[in-house]
Amino acid sequence: MRAVQIREYGGPEVLVPTESPTPEPGPGQVRVDVEAAGVNFVETYQRAGRYRVPLPFVPGDEAAGTVSAVGPGVEGVGLGDRVVSLNVRGSYAEQAVVAADRLVPVPPDVSLETAAASFLQGLTAHYLLFDTYPVKPGDTVLVHAAAGGMGLLLTQVATRLGARVIGTASTPDKATLARKAGAVEVVPYADAARAVAELTGGEGVPAVYDGVGRDTFDTSLSVLRKRGLLVLYGAASGPVPPFDPMRLQHAGSVFLTRPTLGDHVVTPADLRRRAADLFGWLADGVTVRVHDRYPLAEAARAHADLEARRTTGKLLLVP
């Protein structure tokens, strides 16, 4: 089968298309013929060596496709089932294996491409908005990179929960997308503090959802109201440098958290509960924007586009 392999850490150029043996499922596993695989920032961290994965490896965890082989001891999953998972082993490939209890059936009215495009980011939006800071009607929150894949989902769902969303975006076209998703105001990153002050009467917001990291961290702290929460869920611009925790006191006894999805989908029941809500959102009109689709041979271009922040929405590899 065709796959993309990383043999050394580095830039996008280390993503090398190759021929690999067809994977065979072991006990409790199934093999999935991948129809679409999500491209996510975590894979750029792994590729660069910021998150160490033993070399060589096929990157990717998120994929949707059709079950083509079932290992010993698997129950409730059959050949031909349409499934999606965020725990796939090496989804940058035509075929991949996954533990059967980490699969979720894809509803008939949801395409496999939509499932792949929405799954990781949709489940992330779910725990951020329902667990990390539970958004309430009447809240005003700041969402950085509101036109990105995560930003668009956060904006749509937070708005449906009754919150007002202030978004940041780097271009007018991106700002237009974020407004269409429901943001009441979208401004350049440099204007975020002014916009928050104007729309909250100087009080600040109870929560900031920040997937950008280094470039937005100071602003995010500055716009929180007293005892507000900075939800730092990513680092698209780079990691936040070490800082004095006394800054949290000076900012108004605020809180900082760095959550991760793995701690919020610990059990199969967690996974299926959040997935059911996600598919409900999709049925109710929440949209997933796919910025572009890339063949496996162009995985390096997908990473380059993502890291350069040239994208609005989700990137997919389509074997």
Question: If you had to describe this structure to a student in words, what would you say it looks like?
Answer:
- Helix 2 crosses helix 3 and helix 2 packs across helix 8.
- This protein starts with a strand and ends with a strand.
- The mean pLDDT is 96.
- Strand 12, helix 7 and strand 13 form a beta-alpha-beta unit.
- Helices cover 29% and strands 25% of the residues.
- It has 2 domains: 168 residues, Quinone Oxidoreductase, Chain A, domain 1, CATH 3.90.180.10; 121 residues, NAD(P)-binding Rossmann-like Domain (Rossmann fold, 3-Layer(aba) Sandwich).
- Strands 3, 4, 5, 6, 7, 14 and 15 form a 7-stranded mixed β-sheet that branches. A 6-stranded parallel β-sheet has the order 10-9-8-11-12-13, with helices on both faces.
- It has 9 helices and 15 strands.
- By secondary structure, the chain is an alpha/beta fold.
Instruction: List SSEs in N-to-C order.
Output: EEEHEEEEHEHEHEHEHEHEHEHE
Name the helicity range. 25-40%
Radius of gyration: 20 Å
Number of domains: 2
Mean pLDDT: 96
Please provide the count of β strands. 15
Q: What proportion of the residues form beta strands (DSSP E)?
A: 15-25%
Low-confidence stretches: none
CATH architecture name of the largest domain: Alpha-Beta Complex
Number of separate helices: 9
CATH topology of the largest domain: Quinone Oxidoreductase, Chain A, domain 1
Task: Please give the largest β-sheet.
Answer: 7 strands, mixed
Quickly name the level 1 CATH class of the largest domain: Alpha Beta
Indicate the overall shape. globular
CATH superfamily of the largest domain: Medium-chain alcohol dehydrogenases, catalytic domain
Distance between the termini: 10 Å
Would you tell me the structural class of the helices and strands? Answer: alpha/beta
